[in-house]
């Protein structure tokens, strides 16, 4: 059996630049992300056009089934139907784009197809630029809807309170600010960590199993497909939960609680 | 390719993690455009189909509920009809039993009357036959007595004497009471 240490396995946390276009670095993560996004667009457009024409097959039925399930989830998590409808495009796009991009990490040739020593394929879910972009979009969207539903001051009141009048509330507000940042960072790092670890897992299994890899790897690939679905679903659900929490943040302050008790 | 060990040595944590601000901003803009396009032209069709399917399911559920309600109403109507039919059947059976009992009773009475009439006729016929037999026996006895008397007295009796003699003998012997 081969010694894994002999392979000189090198792992790059960041996506690597394949070439530069007009001064912009095109990375392997960006390129694969583009492919994953195009796949998601093609599947969604194909399904929408087929539905519009009234032609159905099993694949369209499957996409419709998933779409319907996601819609039901949105309506269950966000009680306000109007807000749920507004959040639908963002949440569903996150789900499909994340899922297809994650699934690209199990493509054969992940680490073996190289240009100038750099792997061409790298799932964009394993690129922090992509996951951080999604997390920023989610956090900003949540804040936008919080401002729209609670008002500017109502939203600020969630974070900043008078420490002399309501010291506990002020502490809660500080925790809320930390919570907002940690939510965004956790969203980005969770997806990145899972996808990145998944890619490394596949490479390590490939090296460890050597000639038996073609028998063993499919099981791990299936596992990664499942994890990809789970991660996309988690990102989707967390986006909805954060939005729902932000717009329904009507918990009384410490002072108000005292008044209510009195 | 960067090595993991380079991460700690690198001063810029963002570049160590591969975060490129240009790429980040570009991906944010690209994703927002994607969300806008899909939300504007793709999702409405899918949502419409889901709504239509939901409406179809709700309509089917409503139709099912109505059908169940109608079936329940029909069941009640059928039950009422069956109850009515049973009631009528019971009445018919009761009437039939009563009529048959009456008919049997009437037949029995008729049969009894016929039997009584037959018995009466037979009895009368029997009495007539006995009477006739008595008369015949009486006449035969008279003739035999006449013959016996002629033998005894050895002379021919006339009708008047004969008749008186026979009558006297019969009376004295007590043959005819």
UniProtKB/TrEMBL annotation, chain A:
GO terms for molecular function: proton-transporting ATP synthase activity, rotational mechanism. The lineage of its organism: Bacteria, Candidatus Saccharimonadota, Candidatus Saccharimonadia, Candidatus Saccharimonadales, Candidatus Saccharimonadaceae. The keyword Transport applies. The gene is atpB. InterPro entries: ATP_syn_F0_a_bact/chloroplast (IPR045082), ATP_synth_F0_asu (IPR000568), F0_ATP_A_sf (IPR035908). The chain crosses the membrane at residues 29-49, 90-110, 130-151, 200-220, 226-248. This is ATP synthase subunit a. Belongs to the ATPase A chain family. Key component of the proton channel; it plays a direct role in the translocation of protons across the membrane. SUPFAM superfamilies: F1F0 ATP synthase subunit A (SSF81336). HAMAP family: ATP_synth_a_bact. GO terms for cellular component: plasma membrane; proton-transporting ATP synthase complex. Signal peptide: none annotated. Keywords: ATP synthesis, Cell membrane, CF(0), Hydrogen ion transport, Ion transport, Membrane, Transmembrane, Transmembrane helix, Transport. It is found in: Cell membrane; Membrane. It is a multi-pass membrane protein.
């Amino acid at each position: 059996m081969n010694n894994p240490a002999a392979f000189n396995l090198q792992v790059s946390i960041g996506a690597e630049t394949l070439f530069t276009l007009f001064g912009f670095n095109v990375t392997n993560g960006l390129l694969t992300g583009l492919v994953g996004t195009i796949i998601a667009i093609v599947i969604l457009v194909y399904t929408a056009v087929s539905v519009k024409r009234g032609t159905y097959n099993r694949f369209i039925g499957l996409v419709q089934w998933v779409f319907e399930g996601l819609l039901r989830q949105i309506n269950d998590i966000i009680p306000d139907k109007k807000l749920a409808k507004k959040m639908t495009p963002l949440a569903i796009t996150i789900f499909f784009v994340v899922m297809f991009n994650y699934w690209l990490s199990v493509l054969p040739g992940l680490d073996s197809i190289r240009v100038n020593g750099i792997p061409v394929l790298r799932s964009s879910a394993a690129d922090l630029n992509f996951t951080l972009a999604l997390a920023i979009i989610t956090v900003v969207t949540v804040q936008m809807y919080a401002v729209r539903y609670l008002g500017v001051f109502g939203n600020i009141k969630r974070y900043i309170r008078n420490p002399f009048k309501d010291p506990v509330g002020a502490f809660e507000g500080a925790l809320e600010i930390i919570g907002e940042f940690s939510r965004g960072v956790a969203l980005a790092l969770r997806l990145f960590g899972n996808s990145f670890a998944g890619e490394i897992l596949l490479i390590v299994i490939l090296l460890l199993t050597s000639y038996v890899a073609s028998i063993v790897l499919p099981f791990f690939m299936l596992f990664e497909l499942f994890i990809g679905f789970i991660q996309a679903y988690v990102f989707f659900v967390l986006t909805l939960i954060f939005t729902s929490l932000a717009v329904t943040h009507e918990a009384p302050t410490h002072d108000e609680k005292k008044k209510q008790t009195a | 390719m960067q090595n993991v060990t380079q991460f700690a040595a690198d001063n810029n944590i963002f570049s160590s993690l591969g975060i490129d601000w240009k790429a980040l901003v570009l991906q944010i803009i690209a994703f927002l455009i994607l969300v806008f396009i899909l939300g504007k032209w793709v999702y409405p069709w899918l949502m419409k189909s889901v709504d239509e399917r939901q409406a179809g399911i709700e309509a089917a559920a409503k139709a099912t509920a109505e059908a169940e309600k109608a079936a329940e109403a029909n069941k009640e109507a059928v039950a009422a009809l069956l109850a009515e039919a049973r009631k009528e059947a019971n009445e018919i059976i009761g009437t039939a039993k009563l009529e048959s009992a009456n008919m049997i009773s009437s037949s029995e009475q008729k049969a009894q009357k016929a039997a009584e009439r037959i018995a009466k006729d037979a009895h009368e016929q029997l009495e007539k036959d006995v009477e006739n037999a008595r008369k015949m026996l009486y006449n035969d006895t008279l003739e035999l007595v006449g013959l016996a008397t002629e033998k005894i007295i050895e002379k021919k009796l006339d009708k008047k004497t004969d008749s008186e003699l026979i009558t006297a003998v019969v009376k004295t012997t007590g043959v005819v009471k």
